[in-house]
Amino acid sequence: MNRLTTSILALALTAMGASAALGQDAEDQPKPARQSWSFSGLFGTYDQAQLQRGFQVYKEVCSNCHRLSIPFRTLADPNGPAYSEAQVKALAASYQIVNDEPNDKGEIFKRAGTPADIFPPPDAYPNSQAAAAAFGKAPPDMWLLAKARKYERGFPWFVFDALPFDQYQEMGADYIYAILNGYTKSGDAQWNAYYPGHRIAMPQPIVDGAVAYTDGTPAKLDNYARDVAAFLSWASEPTLDTRKKIGFRVMIFLFALAILLYLTKKRIWSKLH
Amino acid sequence: MSGTPSYVPKSAIGKWFESRLPIMGLVHSSFVAFPVPRNLNYLWTFGAILAFMLGAQIVTGVILAMHYVPSATEAFASVEHIMRDVNFGWLIRYLHTNGASMFFFAVYVHMFRGIYYGSYKAPREVLWILGVIIYLLMMATAFMGYVLPWGSMSFAGATVITNLFTAIPLVGTGVAHWLWGGYAVGDPTLNRFFSLHYLLPFMIAGVVGLHIWALHVSGQNNPEGVEVKDVERDTVAFTPYATIKDLFGVSVFLIVYAWFVFYIPTYLLDADNSVQANPLVTPAHIVPEWYLLPFYAILRAIPNKLVGVVALGAAIVLLAFLPWLDTSSVKSGKYRPVFRVFFWLFVACCVGLGYLGSQEVSDTATLIARILALGYFGFLLVVLPLLGVFEKTKPLPASIADAVLAKTKPAEAVAPPASH
Ligand code: HEM
Questions:
Q1: Contact: B80, A16; criterion CB under 8 Å
Q2: What is the CATH number of the domain that holds B135?
Q3: Which of A50, A251, B57, B389 has the fewest C-beta atoms lying within 10 Å of its C-beta?
């Protein structure tokens, strides 16, 4: 019986192996490399200084084209960039926001932003049609960008990705990092190694030295890419820290519960003959 | 087997109430005194796990519905509002999305268990058919639920599936327009899907009630596949024996569920569903949720749309006929050496089809999918009917108790009976 089962399993595995090979034909599309992130793993949390640098990169570079539809107030999130209330207030006030309601003369007007407001669209591209007209394709809103991009891992990797101690959940961040580092054909600002099909509508947005960091971190593309990818990961999943913290307690509780139930079960069943 | 008035109320109020509505007696006979075969393995705890998951989906779903807005312009943002601004909204939503997957995982274990041990055979045909109805309702519920966040894969999925109806000759397009409430998937579609997604789980709960009623008439099957002969020797009381075992099963299942919710919550989510639906932009690669992939693969393997839709339907509906397709009088795969081989090949076909359903179409993929689809239908329509005639089965134990004793004897009474 056991030999049968093993031979069947072997058969099934060969079949799956064969079908796995399907995915591999004619791939000139490299996969983003896996980076190490402070927020990966069982106990991962966002690195506040990194998020602040990432926000700086967003604000000085990406925000020229990409919208980020989150309220200013969330930047004060203690599990996020953790800017002070005063900093957030000043930041919000530096933006001009179109008021929801017209004034009493019926005119639409602009006013200084408050922390409850959502980041306005880039000045140059008030709506995605305007941006699409300029680039051929609209730059996506960045609030969910890190969650909205994944790439095929293929068999058997996608199985390992789900398991403890590997738990690969940062594909979006790796993809953003790879895209920013993917402009490797000199003389072609719209060729990207990692963009599907390589023709990307976004001209290389950032190079070494483009942003002046104030905390001594070297002003290198590699750091910009890493920091902004971390910041965008937070923007799309701001509850990650809380989730992992609660999750750990829940896990301990459930393991204890399962062990106790198992012992009780053994005890009850041992009375049978 | 149930129905013996084993319950005697102690208090005066209890007596007064019981003589007017004997509900405590019903609960007692169904979940306390109910005799359970003593040799059930842990695959039999999945019924309790499924009941738990149905409850979990209803509770989390009702809370989500308090914050969700079923409108094409606001649905996507309202889900993100739940994720970010509602207290523990992220927890509720991740419990619900991953809960659907856990529910399907459990139902697949439950169903394959039923096939392996021949649980659908007499006298459990109606019990099995009720199960298939539950499964159909689950698929409908999950499909409509997936449309609600109005991501681009929601939209694509709704379009692909509702378009299947256009394959019906003559009236197909009319039916599709009627389903959409317009000329394409849009706001009216989303609204009716929300309404139905809220309704169907309660219909599932109703059918589960019938399912458990039927179970309590026929009693449970068991790994030996021989019926209970002597209630004293072959069975144990549901409480405490099955109750504690089910609780333990549920707690282990919860560990896996919690792992998904807290540590890999987006593992099963399609990235394209974090992009708001836009009728003008279709995702490059449309894939349904994993639990529907085998059927999607069957659909794509067939070049003619109408035939494909019929095959898709047949792949599910045929399951309801298993009690009659399987002609063997022996229930358990344990005593059917040839059936067992084909059973695992059938499982491999389902897994293989599922994998292919997730891949992009290519000639090789389509060819393999066709072979596996033949395997799927071949098992149901050819292998099962013929095996009953040709297979040489092993001798069955005289009774459940004999099988249990044969197993524990050599180990000299130390090993607890019944657990595997
Ligand atoms: C909402 C989904 C479902 C729930 C809550 C549910 C619940 C249960 C429960 C509590 C049991 C008794 C415990 C056990 O034997 O595991 C049971 C038995 C059974 N279920 Fe389900 N079930 C569901 C779906 C299904 C489906 C989809 C099928 C098959 C198509 C199915 C087929 C059966 C069969 C054949 C039995 C009798 C098993 C035996 O005694 O061997 N069930 N179900």
A1: no
A2: 1.20.810.10
A3: B389
